[in-house]
Write a structure and sequence with these properties.
79% of the residues lie in helices and 0% in strands. It has helices spanning 2-29, 38-45, 49-77, 79-98, 103-131, 134-165, 170-173, 175-189, 204-226, 235-257, 271-288, 290-302, 306-330, 336-357, 364-391, 398-435, 444-457, 462-466, 469-472, 477-513. It is globular and about 75 Å long. The relative contact order is 0.12.
Length: 524
């Protein structure tokens, strides 16, 4: 009889994992799936380029700001309850996105959707940590980590298919049936188990300072991303970043002095936890931020459609499904810092390899070995990172630890996208100055004008300009297209070198700081 009860409880755990994984998949994929729908949204809603950027930014900013707050609310009022509330908000927000008739409505409803999505991501690891024990926890974290890696890279694939087959609204309406199913699964199978319920008063000031810090930081970076010609000293950039520093200092002061802090800073006494959040930042900046530029490169310059791009990027994301659970099982046997170093080095080597294979005529037939190397590293990095974070804190700290990992990763993505964009623009402009004058047969005045137009349009639009009917009619069109491809390649290679260094440095830090796992499992 006892065995039957155990089997039922055990099966409920795995059904709970399905619910949690579906929620996280929806939340994360909506940070990338919308990218391939932007041209259709622009036509349908008569949106400007700036409007389209805010379709993405309104989601990512709200998503980042609320991660820590949801983690604390989960500790206070129950993680299952807050997770389900996030599911409801996310599902309703998705439906509102689909019925938007103006670009302003879409901006607002994307923010609503992000409120729910932030809860799903923030609470997921903590729910796994309290639902599973021992070896099963490592396997479950490995599976969830696989979903995270898969969702980040598969956005273009799913989005491309939905937009091509139906409409841009379909990328949001598909969340309605999935959301309802996930709500039902969560209600019945996620346990109410809470190892600790935070007591005392809610630290509202801490929440405000936390939200203000992350908002100012991410918004300042978004401003720089949207206005690459602005200097870092521009008031609209430096002002927000400076405000983030001030608010962060006030937040730390508040956490040290209040009786009921929003965040338990004692978690950072563990070198393993500190190492986990650092590698989360480097992973977001060096790999997940890179996918946006990889998709643009493959569509705008190599010539693949959104669907074809996503299908080829599955060479990277597919490893998450295979290696995630395996890496999760190995977290019970191997030191987590060494596992993270191995995975980060693999990603770095893959990026260096991809940069070496990037030529003016390269296609996926040339890239696939590098994609496989990146996939092996990316598919095995999340399980030891999350396991290290969860196993280096006390059970009652798991909610905040989960939120911290998610926050550092998301802020890392924001940093990565901005700095990669700057490296791309610098390399692209340097390439234009080097290669455009070498186009034989083109009048000097035309090259001068075209150079100015291409710089103003930016690296994403260069290929579209030189493949216009007017340019194609010229006898030097092929040489011109080669010059633009070489210019973009120069910036793109610069991005890959930057990201490879970030991942390798992150891996070294992880190997030094993270002592959980293996024979040192008791060490924090």
């Amino acid at each position: 009889m006892q065995n039957i009860v155990h089997e039922k409880t055990n099966s409920k755990r795995w059904l709970a994992l399905i619910a949690i994984s579906l929620g996280v998949f929806m939340a994360l994929i909506d940070t990338t799936v919308v990218n391939v729908a932007l041209p259709s949204i622009q036509t349908s809603l008569n949106a400007s380029y700036s409007d389209l950027q805010w379709v993405i930014s309104s989601y990512t900013i709200v998503f980042s700001v609320l991660l820590l707050i949801w983690a604390k609310l989960g500790d206070l009022y129950g993680r299952k309850l807050m997770f389900m509330l996030g599911l409801v908000i996310f599902t309703i927000g998705s439906g509102l996105d689909a019925v938007s008739t103006t670009i302003s409505m879409l901006h607002i409803f994307r923010a609503v959707q992000a409120v729910g999505g932030s809860a799903l991501m923030s609470l997921s690891f903590a729910l796994i940590g309290t639902s599973f024990d021992g070896k099963e926890r490592g396997i479950a974290l490995g599976i969830l980590s696989s979903i995270i890696g898969l969702s980040t890279a598969s956005g273009p694939l799913l989005g491309g298919w939905l937009v091509d087959a139906f409409s841009w609204q379909s990328i949001f309406t598909i969340n309605l049936p999935v959301g309802i199913i996930t709500i039902i699964l969560a209600w019945f199978f996620i346990p109410n188990k809470q190892t600790h319920r935070a007591s005392g008063r809610v630290d509202f000031l801490g929440m405000i300072l936390s939200a203000g810090t992350i908002f100012s930081l991410v918004f300042g970076l978004v401003q720089k991303e949207m206005h690459a010609n602005w200097s870092w000293g521009e008031l609209q950039v430096a002002g927000y970043l400076g405000m983030a520093v001030v608010l962060f200092a006030l937040f730390i002061w508040r956490q040290w002095t209040t009786k009921n802090p929003m965040m338990d800073l004692s978690m950072f006494k563990s070198s393993s936890f500190t190492g986990a959040v650092i590698i989360a930042f480097f992973l977001g900046a060096g790999l997940y931020g890179f996918f946006a530029y990889l998709s643009t490169f493959m569509q705008n310059y190599v010539g693949y459609t959104a669907w074809q791009t996503g299908l080829r990027q599955a060479t990277i994301s597919g490893f998450s499904l295979i290696l995630g659970p395996i890496a999760g099982m190995l977290t019970n046997r191997l030191r987590h810092g060494y596992m993270l170093a191995f995975s980060a080095f693999f990603i770095g080597i893959g990026l260096f390899t991809l940069s070496a294979l990037t030529t003016e005529t390269a296609t996926f037939a040339d890239f696939w070995p590098a994609f496989i190397i990146i996939g092996i590293g990316g598919g095995s990095i999340n399980p030891p990172m999350t396991t290290a974070a969860m196993s280096s804190v006390e059970p009652h700290q798991m909610g905040m630890a989960s939120g911290m990992i998610s926050t550092f990763m998301q802020v890392g993505v924001s940093f990565g996208v901005v700095f990669q964009g700057l490296r791309l623009a610098d390399g692209y402009q340097a390439g234009l100055s080097q290669y455009l004058p070498k186009v034989t047969g083109a009048p000097t005045a035309m090259i001068t004008t075209l150079h100015r137009v291409l710089v103003d349009a930016g690296p994403f639009s260069g290929h579209a300009i030189v493949t216009s009917k007017r340019v194609l009619a010229t006898p030097f069109a092929h040489d011109l297209q080669t010059a633009i491809r070489l210019s973009f390649n120069r910036g793109f290679i610069s991005i890959m070198h930057l990201d490879a260094v970030l991942l390798i440095v992150g891996g070294i830090i992880a190997a030094i700081l993270i002592k959980t796992g293996g024979n040192d499992n008791s060490s924090k």
